[in-house]
Amino acid sequence: MGHGNEIQYLSAAILIGIGAYGVIRSLEEYKRHGEPVKTLARTLLVSFFLFGIAGGLGVLVTTAVSLKFWMLQAVSITLGYIILASSTLNLLGKLERYWRAPSVRREKSRGRKPPLPPAAMLTSTEDAKVLLKTIFGYFNVPILAIGREHPESWAKKMGVEPAEYIWLTRVEHPQSVSPSALHILNSKITTFLKNNPNGIVYIEGIEYISFYVDFKSIAKFILAVRDAAIIHGGHLILLVTPETLEPQQYAIFKKELETIDVQRIINNLVGVALFGTLAPGSAPKSPERNDDAGTQSPQEES
After folding, report:
1. Has residue 110 been placed in a domain?
2. Of 100, 132, 153, which residue sits at a domain end?
3. Distance, C-alpha 66 to centroid of its chain
4. Are residues 169 and 73 in the same domain?
5. Is pTM beyond 0.70 here?
6. Contact criterion met (CB below 8 Å) for 150 and 167
7. Are 223 and 287 within one domain?
8. What is the mean pLDDT of residues 276-286?
């Protein structure tokens, strides 16, 4: 083996070694995080495989078959791979640090509206988590969260520090409201929306409220919050689990609230391309509401 061949084989070994490390690291990040980090990690995994492992094997084949232009191929693949890998890893690191930085309470919105309809519905806790983290990271809007879990447990689970949190429980607590006191919830929500233009009201735990209040009252409460969000320029996001409701009950929420495509919003904000991450503030226009979203529910007419 000549001295030149040793350099070529060393270059190929470096490519394959870094490629293998990158594939393993990207796979770990893919398993550990949700969107949009998952999308970026998946893209990075493919890049490591193509430019690292496949590229290294290509250098080996070129060296074994023909020495012509081996230096140009080895250097170009190596430099291109290093630039791609370092840029993408840096992007992943910045994005993750941005979301995991110590939460600082957001100031009131200064005019940038998130790409959300006035009243929306989600059917998955994971979708809610991804959406709230994305909105929290990209827009300077306050969030009022209403949930069944203790405030600290909810914030840890969702990865978001809301401006305000209401704990649905009958236990005495500074942040608690009884699930049967819908009038108090409505008052607090309305005050929040008045004081926080573009603010987001996120509600979960409807099935828990139904233990204490009939569905007719719950539907009227949600529709009142929807109207308040429209009037004050805010947003309502309701988490509904279809399995916990009767079909006709779920149909009412589905008619009055827009079911949003979380992945589409993520793709528009973050981008599915490797270097397609958009800067905060470059959000797309808000999705249009359903044509029948403003119609009055039979339950409301009652």
Report:
1. no
2. 100
3. 49
4. no
5. no
6. yes
7. yes
8. 38
